Amino acid sequence: MEFETILKLLGVGAAMIGVGWKYYQFTTSKKSNLREEYRFAKQFLSDCEEGNIHPFAEEKGYQAIAGSAAMQLSEIKYILSLKDPVSKLNQYIESRNHFESFNADNPSLKLKWLYRNTRVRSILIGGGFIAYLLSAISLVSPLLFPEFWFGSEDVRWSAFLVLGPILGPAAFLSMRYSVKTLIAGRLVENQKSHRFNFALL
Question: Which segments cross the bilayer (predicted)?
C-alpha cells in the first residue's frame, strides 16, 4: 500500500472519529451545562416542595429538566421517580418513540406492540447491528478492498464519495436504532426499581 493511500485512509478514519465525537458532544452535556442544570433543578424542586409554584410554571419547569416540551408532566415525574433518574431520563428521551403514550391513571412504561417480545427485540437489535456493519463495510470497501473494485484509485475514491452520503447515514441510523431498542427494553425491565414515591413528586 502506497504512503499516499495510507494518508488518505488515516484521513477517513479521523473524519469518522470526528463525526462520532460531535455526536457524543451533542448527546452529552458539558460540565458548565451540568452545573447550571443542577442549580435550576435544586431551586425548582425546592419551590415545588414548598408549594409556592403555579401549575403552569411547574409543568414548564419539569419540561425544562427533561429538555423536552413534548413530554407530559406526569410522564416526567414518573421517570424521575425511578432509580438513577438522570440516566433513566436520558435513556427514555432517546428511545421515547418505542413506547406507547404515557397514561397518568396507570403510570408505567409500555412498549409498542412491535417491541414487547424479548426475542423480537433481540432480532431487531441484531438486524440493526448487521445493517450497520454492512453499510460501514460497503462504504469503505473501495478504499480497504481495492481488489474487489475495477478502475484506478481515482475511480475508487469517486465511488467512496458517491456512497458516503447514502451509506454513512444508513450506518448511523442502523446503529442508533439498535441502541434505542436495547435501552427501551432495559428501561421496561428496570422500571420497578423506584427511588422516590411517584405520587409525592
Answer: 6-24, 122-145, 157-177
